[in-house]
Design brief:
The complex is a heterodimer of chains A (289) and B (219). Chain A is mainly alpha-helical and 289 residues long. Chain A contains 13 helices and 1 strand, in the order αααααβαααααααα. The chains are: A mainly alpha (289), B alpha+beta (219). Chains A and B meet through α2, α3, α5, β1 and α7 of A and α1, β1, α2, α3 and β3 of B.
C-alpha cells in the first residue's frame, strides 16, 4: 500500500506506467500473487457491484423500517423527466441510493471502502460505463485507481467512521470514485490525485452520527452526496482546476480533523442527528432484547 | 491490509462489524466445534445488544453457526434455515464488563453432545477475535489454522505440543500461554502457517494432563 499520492504520481513518471498499474504491481508484490490473478479478483469485485445494483428490490425495507423503497421513488421521478439534475447525474443518484439501501436491507454488496459507503463507487463507475460505453476491463482498471487512493487514505488517516467520522467513509469513497472517474475520462496521475483531493475537501469535517447506531440514517442518503460530489470533483480536475492544498496534505487534514472530533460524532450513535429528540426516540423504540 | 480490503469484501450488509464480523464469529465457532451444532445459546453485549437487531447481528451469528460465509445471500433467512437444519437457538443479554463493545458469549452444543463456550468480539472491518474458550483466555483472529490446548499446569506440555508440530512440519505463527493459577487449568493457543494433521490432534488428546484439544481448520 502506498503511503502518498505523490509517490504514486512520481512512479508513473519514472516508469511511464499508468496509475492503476503502479497500484496493482505494488499489491501483487506485497501479497505474492500474479497480476492476472489480482485482475481476475478485481473483475469479480466489479461484477458483484453490478449485481448489487441489479438486485435492488424497491419494495424492501430495512429491519428497523427506517430506510428502503426510496431508490424506486427516485426512479419514478427520473422516468417522469422532471429531474433538474440531468440524465447522467440522475442515474448516479439512483444507483447510489439503491446500492446503499440494499446494504441496509441485508443484501449482498461490496464494501468500498466500507459497507456504509458501499453505494458511492458503484454508482459512479456503473453509470459511467452505461452512459459512455467504457470497456469492462477499463472500469476494472479504474477500480484499482480507487483502491490505490483508498489505500493511501488508510495509510495516512483512516477509513472507519468510528475513527474519523463520516468524512473517513463517505469522504474517502467519494475521493476514490472521483479518482477513478478521472482515470476513465483520460486524466493523468496528477489529475486523478487532484480530483480525489477536491472530493475529499468538500466533505472534510463530516460527522458520523447514525440514528440508533444503524447504518441507515443519514448514511444511505449520504451515499448520494458522495457520488455526486465525485462527479463534480472529477469535472473540476479535468478542467485543469487543482486543489490549492496538495492532495496528500488534504488527507492529513482529514486525519487531524478526525482526531479532534468528539467521540459523540464518531459512530457511537450519541451526537449529531442521532442525538436529536427524534433520533433518540427512534433508538429507544428499536433496541434489542 | 491489501487492495481487496479497500475495494471489498463482498458481503451481506449492513455493517462490516455488526453483520460480516458476526457471521465470521459464528462460522469460526462452528469450525472450532468440529461438528454440526444442534443448540446455541447466544448472549449479546454492548453495541451488539443495543444495535444488533437493526444490523441483523442475531441472524448473522446463526448463519455463521450454520456454516454460511459473509457473502451468503441466505443470511437474512438464517433463522428459518436453523429450524430446517434442526438447530435450536436462543438470544439474550449479558454484561461481560470491560470488553470490546461488539462482543457475544455463546454456549454451543454439538450433535455428539460436545459442548463449547465461546466469547468473541467483532473488532472492525469484519475482523474478529475469539477472546475466550470454555472460560479460559484465547485471543486469536480465526485467520490462521489455530490449535488450542487445555492442559493441567505442569511441566512438559508445551514441549509435547511444539515437538509434535515440528515433527509434522507445521510452523508456528504466534503462540500464547495462559493459566488460571499455579498447577490449575492452563491453555496454549498456537496460530500456525500450515494445517495440523487430524491424527496429530488425536494423539495429543490422549496424552496425560491434556484436558481438551480444540482445533480451527481453515480447509
Amino acid at each position: 500500500m502506498y503511503k502518498s499520492l505523490a509517490e504514486i504520481c512520481q512512479r508513473t513518471e519514472e516508469t511511464g506506467l499508468p496509475f492503476w498499474k503502479i497500484v496493482q504491481q505494488e499489491d501483487c508484490c506485497e501479497q505474492g500473487i500474479s497480476e492476472e490473478k489480482s485482475f481476475d479478483f478485481m473483475r469479480r469485485m466489479y461484477a458483484a457491484m453490478r449485481e448489487s445494483d441489479q438486485n435492488y428490490d424497491g419494495k424492501l425495507k430495512s429491519a428497523s423500517g427506517l430506510v428502503g423503497t426510496e431508490g424506486a421513488k427516485l426512479h419514478e421521478r427520473i422516468a417522469s423527466g422532471k429531474m433538474v439534475s440531468g440524465d447522467f447525474m440522475s442515474i448516479v443518484m439512483e444507483k447510489a441510493l439503491k446500492v446503499a439501501e440494499s446494504n441496509a436491507c441485508m443484501k449482498r454488496i461490496v464494501a468500498a471502502p466500507t459497507a456504509g459507503s458501499c453505494g458511492v463507487v458503484p454508482a459512479v463507475f456503473l453509470s459511467a460505463q452505461e452512459k459512455f460505453g467504457f470497456a469492462q476491463d477499463r472500469v476494472v482498471e479504474a477500480l484499482y485507481v480507487a483502491a490505490g487512493i483508498g489505500g493511501v487514505i488508510a495509510s495516512r488517516a483512516f477509513l472507519a467512521g468510528a475513527e474519523g467520522g463520516c468524512q473517513a467513509e463517505i469522504g474517502s469513497a467519494s475521493a476514490m470514485a472521483a479518482g477513478g472517474m478521472t482515470y476513465l475520462l483520460g486524466g493523468n496521475a496528477q489529475e486523478i490525485s487532484h480530483a480525489s483531493a477536491l472530493a475529499l475537501k468538500g466533505l472534510l469535517g463530516l460527522a458520523c452520527d447514525p440514528v440508533a447506531g444503524l447504518v441507515e440514517v443519514p448514511c444511505v442518503k449520504r451515499n448520494v452526496l458522495g457520488a455526486v460530489n465525485a462527479i463534480t470533483s472529477s469535472d473540476l480536475a479535468m478542467a485543469g482546476i487543482c486543489s490549492r492544498i496538495p492532495p496528500d496534505e488534504v488527507i492529513d487534514a482529514m486525519r487531524t480533523i478526525g482526531r479532534s472530533m468528539n467521540a459523540d460524532i464518531r459512530e457511537t450513535g450519541k451526537g449529531g442527528l442521532a442525538g436529536t429528540p427524534t433520533g433518540v426516540a427512534i433508538r429507544d423504540e428499536i433496541a434489542m432484547g | 491490509m491489501n487492495l481487496f480490503d479497500i475495494v471489498g469484501p463482498v458481503m451481506v450488509g449492513p455493517s462490516s462489524s455488526h453483520t460480516a464480523g458476526a457471521v465470521k464469529i459464528g462460522n469460526v465457532s462452528r469450525k472450532l466445534m468440529g461438528e454440526k451444532i444442534v443448540k446455541a445459546e447466544i448472549l449479546f453485549h454492548g453495541s451488539f445488544l443495543a444495535t444488533g437487531k437493526g444490523h441483523g447481528t442475531d441472524k448473522a451469528v446463526v448463519a455463521g453457526l450454520l456454516g454460511c460465509a459473509v457473502d451468503d445471500p441466505r443470511i437474512p433467512d438464517s433463522l428459518e434455515m436453523a429450524q430446517n437444519a434442526g438447530m435450536t437457538y436462543s438470544f439474550g443479554a449479558v454484561d461481560l464488563g470491560d470488553v470490546h463493545p461488539n462482543s457475544v458469549k455463546m454456549h454451543l452444543t454439538g450433535q455428539s453432545g460436545k459442548e463449547l463456550d465461546v466469547v468473541a468480539a467483532s473488532v472492525g472491518g469484519g475482523r474478529i477475535q475469539i477472546c475466550k474458550l470454555d472460560g479460559l483466555t484465547a485471543n486469536f483472529s480465526g485467520d490462521y489454522p489455530t490449535l488450542i490446548v487445555h492442559n493441567v499446569d505442569q511441566p512438559g506440555h508445551v514441549a509435547e505440543v511444539t515437538s509434535m508440530l515440528e515433527h509434522k512440519s507445521v510452523n508456528i505463527a504466534t503462540m500464547q500461554l495462559y493459566r488460571e493459577g499455579r498447577g490449575g487449568n492452563a491453555v496454549m493457543v498456537l496460530e500456525c502457517d500450515q494445517e495440523v494433521p487430524a491424527e496429530a490432534i488425536r494423539w495429543l488428546e490422549h496424552l496425560e494432563g491434556i484436558v481438551k484439544v480444540t482445533y480451527l481448520s481453515l480447509v
